[in-house]
């Protein structure tokens, strides 16, 4: 599918490297089909050492080389990255953005190029366990959509949505989501240590509990409330804990946090 295609990654930081790593791990492309482009030589050396891909500090040359051009720079860097590339991409090049908040219109206008896919992955992509949501401009044809699906599948699960407004919601749920779980993980491990467990043991207990609960919810297909009720014995330990969580308004705090991320994604899109 991606054989013989040239893929430029503009901004091979944490996420850009996850894409490179995924594509190579799954043998979807060979290292010489990838060009990583970053202003920092030290960063390029790291990426080159790990993946043996081509590297460059010249965004324009990279963007013109790529049949697929992936933008993985920070939102705050995007304007200055796009400006010199205006009207310079190959007419049939597929642009894939993972930049939080940045709209398809930002790309089509800045680049004068309509063939744009907007996506939102997350960091479990580093181990091929990501969750990516993506959408495409109407000018992206079926063959290019298939390329996008294949590239994003290299990160883990992917789903296509036909409405771009879902991308800001996805940024708040699956994009930022790992941070919410990591914070909870950290707090639970610290509580375990506070009670007297060795940190190593507390970590194993918490991580496997989180993993097992996620897999159980996925495989059973049951509503989370039903699964939670099955853990909660009358007058038992879980109800004592849940009562504290509800007193701390955990549902409202989580919902407010997710709404804050959603609003911030929309704000980033306007800046
Ligand atoms: N970290 C995360 O959990 C997620 C991040 N994203 C999005 O992915 C994008 C990248 O995020 P990270 O990988 O976390 O950031 P990062 O800071 O690790 O990577 C950004 C890379 O861009 C490079 N860069 C800076 N200026 C550049 C320029 N002018 N031209 C080319 N490259 C340049 C940096 O040197 C760095 O290697 C962001 O837009 C973010 O919104 C999307 C989903 C999840
Ligand atoms: O925090 C951020 O803005 C990026 C987007 C989703 C995850 N990290």
UniProtKB/TrEMBL annotation:
Its EC number is 1.5.1.2. InterPro entries: 6-PGluconate_DH-like_C_sf (IPR008927), NAD(P)-bd_dom_sf (IPR036291), P5C_Rdtase_cat_N (IPR028939), P5CR-like_CS (IPR053790), P5CR_dimer (IPR029036), Pyrroline-COOH_reductase (IPR000304). Keywords: Amino-acid biosynthesis, Cytoplasm, NADP, Oxidoreductase, Proline biosynthesis. GO terms for biological process: L-proline biosynthetic process. GO terms for cellular component: cytoplasm. Residues 164-268 form the Pyrroline-5-carboxylate reductase dimerisation domain. It catalyses: L-proline + NAD(+) = (S)-1-pyrroline-5-carboxylate + NADH + 2 H(+); L-proline + NADP(+) = (S)-1-pyrroline-5-carboxylate + NADPH + 2 H(+). It holds the Pfam family F420_oxidored. The keyword Cytoplasm applies. Its main location: cytoplasm. The keyword Endoplasmic reticulum does not apply. NADPH binds at residue 59. Residues 6-101 form the Pyrroline-5-carboxylate reductase catalytic N-terminal domain. GO terms for molecular function: pyrroline-5-carboxylate reductase activity. NADP(+) binds at residues 10-15, 72-75. It is found in: Cytoplasm. Pathway: Amino-acid biosynthesis; L-proline biosynthesis; L-proline from L-glutamate 5-semialdehyde: step 1/1. PANTHER family: PYRROLINE-5-CARBOXYLATE REDUCTASE. Catalyzes the reduction of 1-pyrroline-5-carboxylate (PCA) to L-proline. Belongs to the pyrroline-5-carboxylate reductase family. This is Pyrroline-5-carboxylate reductase. It comes from Oscillochloris trichoides DG-6. The lineage of its organism: Bacteria, Bacillati, Chloroflexota, Chloroflexia, Chloroflexales. The gene is proC.
